[in-house]
Amino acid sequence: MFPRLSCSVVFATVLVAFAGGEFFSATVHMEGLLWVERELASAVRNYISLGGEVPPELRSLADGTVWLSDPDQVNPTSLVHNPIGAYLLIKRLNQEWSNAIQTLPQPQEVFGQTYDELQLQLPSLADLEGCALALMRLQDVYNLDIRSIINGEIVMRCHPNDTENCRDVNVAELKNRTLPLKLSILDVFYLGIVAQSHNDFYHAAIWLNETLAIMNENACELCPDRRDVLERLADTYSKLRNHRRALELFLESNRIDPTNPYAKSRIDDEEYYADLQGSYTWQLQRPWEWDGRDKYEELCRAGVLQHRGPRATLSCRYVRPSPQFNFGPLKMEVLRETDPVIHIFHDIVSETEAARMRELAAPKFTRSVVVGEDGGDAIILNRVSETAWNFDTDDPVVAKLSRRVDYVTGLSTKEASAEAFQVVNYGLGGQYVPHTDYFEGDHITHHIANGNRVVTFLLYLSDVDAGGATVFPKVGVAVPVVRNSAAVFWNMQKSGAVVPNSEHAGCPVLIGSKWIANKWIREHGQEFRRPCGLTPGE
Fold first, then answer.
1. Which residue has the higher pLDDT, 495 or 176?
2. How many CB atoms lie within 10 A of CB 66?
3. What is each CA distance from 151 to 129, 145, 146, in whole angstroms?
């Protein structure tokens, strides 16, 4: 009998932190999963070294993760900061590890007392599906080359109508190393299936077509069933009203198996509709989703690497917004002077303060929500992140940072005049579509008890390798993620009128882990600090 493992207590500690949540919705959770996989592999190798026997599949998984412990090969966290690496990690734990562990007659002998809890806390199929959808979201926003994704690289291509600030980029080259993150043909097929199951026939056509192309190029031992691929792709084309191509695929499936009733039953229907279409020229087009999407994505591509060096429009100066900064002026970068005012304050928080804010938030994380049509909280597919609220009473560091926001903006940050810090860690492909921070319409009734949101103070508690910019589509501004800085923009004029041009959006992180902390300052309590101006436009 193998003795109980010393890592059991550590396993329990990690897993309790994730209880009841999703893994793909916050990078910090996926970082913990990487550690769990390393401990799983260590437990198997220890068991084998003491004379235990395990199935070859489990031994292969344990041996295949040895390189994760070698810092000369790769920084382990960089794997989950890469969307392909995050997908493959979730797949290994949900599919390969789970299936291999189930072949053990007495898994407790290998993994100790935490086995039952471990089984419950491994990522779910929903996590794997979420990762697949995130890859497709990144593919769209950053116009990623699909063959590069399959080969384990993140290659962004600019659109012909993008601004001159956009540059094609291979993110793997920026890191000066290529991680072993290739997708198998079964992964490619799975992405197509996920898209099809969500009625996303645009992406289903892309990934199922790629599956078929790879099968046509290479003979593979682990290829999916060709007839299944053909019929799924045919169904997809039929939904997209490319009936001529759907007919070709159903005919090929029928030639493989003439006894297959499904293909045979669909051939007559597709022939009928193909004849109706005649010589119609069909093109695969991405469906409309929301107004302003193209401008938003163009800014995301242009801002994908803005944090890496000086920007062409860089304008900086030292400022002393209050006496507290007389002996240490702030470094302020000006992105826009009016409608809306957008500034970046560099080095506004210390590494220690940023770390403390992350530490306080992590145990409190829940899935991020938006204001729904009824004024209540709602979870949407595109906002993949987790949120926690840090109050001034939680810790002296939080109270200190609130006072600093007061000193910078000149506005009161007392409880009745400002919200707590909203700390957010973005998940895989996490984005936030264009929105305003001020409330209007029916939402005012639910959210304006202490006035509307005058200003947004957005702290960056981490940096990222690529992506994650905050963009203002109406004025063409992209605010990069700059570690320990703050982006400050004004949502209202002194008159109380809102600033529609303050509409902004969060671009998905391409590579990295994005942590932010928002502080929204309200109208009430600012009457003498920000009085009305002399003209309605102020």
1. 495
2. 13
3. 20, 10, 9
DSSP-derived secondary structure letter, 443: H
Q: pLDDT tens, 84-105?
A: 989 999 999 999 998 999 889 8
Contact 411, 403 (CB under 8 A): no
Distances (CA, A) of 115 to 44, 108, 118, 265, 392: 13, 6, 5, 48, 39
Rounded-to-integer distance, Cα 228 and Cα 220, Å = 16
DSSP secondary structure code for residue 97 in this structure = I
Distance CA 25, CA 364 (A): 14
Q: Which helix (H) or strand (E) holds 522?
A: strand 515-522
Which amino acid type is present at position 403?
Answer: R
User: By CB neighbour count within 10 A (0-12 exposed, 13-18 middle, 19+ buried), where does 334 fall?
Assistant: middle
Residue range 173-210, pLDDT digits in tens? 665 455 568 899 999 999 999 999 999 999 999 999 99
Q: Which residues pair with 319 in a beta bridge?
A: 330
pLDDT digits (tens, 9 = 90+) for 41-53: 888 999 999 999 9
pTM of the model: 0.89
What does the alpha-carbon distance between residue 410 and residue 323 come to, in Å, rounded to a whole number?
11
Q: Taking a C-beta distance cutoff of 8 angstroms, is the pair 342, 489 a contact?
A: yes
Question: Within 10 Å of residue 253's Cβ, how many Cβ atoms?
Answer: 25
**Taking residues 488-506, what's their average pLDDT?**
94
| pLDDT tens-place string over residues 514-531 | 999 999 999 999 989 998
Q: Is the Cβ–Cβ distance between 181 and 82 less than 8 Å?
A: yes
The residue among 371, 415, 425, 442 whose CA lies nearest residue 519 is 415
Compute the average pLDDT of residues 440-462: 81
Cα(55)–Cα(260) distance, integer angstroms: 37
CA distance 401 to 350: 10
Contacts of 269 (CB under 8 A, 6+ apart): none
Asked whether 10 and 32 are in contact (CB, 8 A), the reply is: no
Count H helices and E strands in the chain, helices first: 20, 19
Residues 467/306, Cβ–Cβ less than 8 Å: no
Residues in contact with 338: Cβ distance below 8 Å, sequence separation at least 6, in sequence order? none
The number of residues making up the chain comes to: 538
Whole-angstrom distance, CA of residue 340 vs CA of residue 13? 46
CB under 8 Å to 87, separation ≥6 — which residues? 128, 131, 132, 134, 135, 183, 187, 428
SS3 percent helix, strand, coil of the chain, rounded to 5, is 45, 15, 40
pLDDT (0 to 100) of residue 533: 77
